[in-house]
Design goal:
17% strand, 5 strands, Double Stranded RNA Binding Domain, 33% helix, elongated, 3 helices, two-stranded antiparallel ribbon
């Protein structure tokens, strides 16, 4: 079981883990070993609650395709076991992040004092600039 929160967990049989060959330089063993992990998780077919499913499907994430399947590729580590742990950890983080509620922004107004200070500063600056003009010799 992949534990997301104290109340939510996903059975491992709902997560499809496939070993693939990692990209990039790797020396002599790069063509022999399949150390990268391809994780696929079908949101619609999962045992998650409807709340979690709706939030996950509403995400605008490149790891989520049109069919509602999360695809995570883990190839950071050299061993398959560490990449498997990394992929599962990243899936858990993605599901947790989907449930975080954004704070609503409350628009604020500047205070009367700050407005008057701003206007005073502008007039002082304008007077300074007016003094920079040509000097008339009369």
């Amino acid at each position: 079981m992949l534990i997301i929160t104290s109340h939510v967990s996903i059975p491992y049989d709902e997560i499809d883990l496939t070993a693939i060959r990692a990209q990039g330089a790797g020396g002599q063993n790069v063509n022999k070993l399949s150390s990268a992990i391809h994780l696929r998780f079908d949101i619609k077919a999962s045992s998650l609650s409807d709340y979690y499913k709706e939030r996950l499907l509403a995400l605008r994430d490149r790891r989520l395709n049109k069919e509602g399947i999360i695809v995570i590729k883990a190839q950071q580590f050299r061993t398959q076991e560490k990449n498997r742990e990394d992929a599962l950890k990243r899936l858990g983080q993605l599901i947790r992040s989907a449930t975080v509620q954004q704070k609503t922004r409350r628009p604020t107004k500047p205070s009367k004092g700050s407005q008057s200070r701003r206007m005073d500063k502008k007039t002082r600056h304008g007077k300074n600039k007016a003094l920079r003009g040509r000097v008339n010799d009369e």
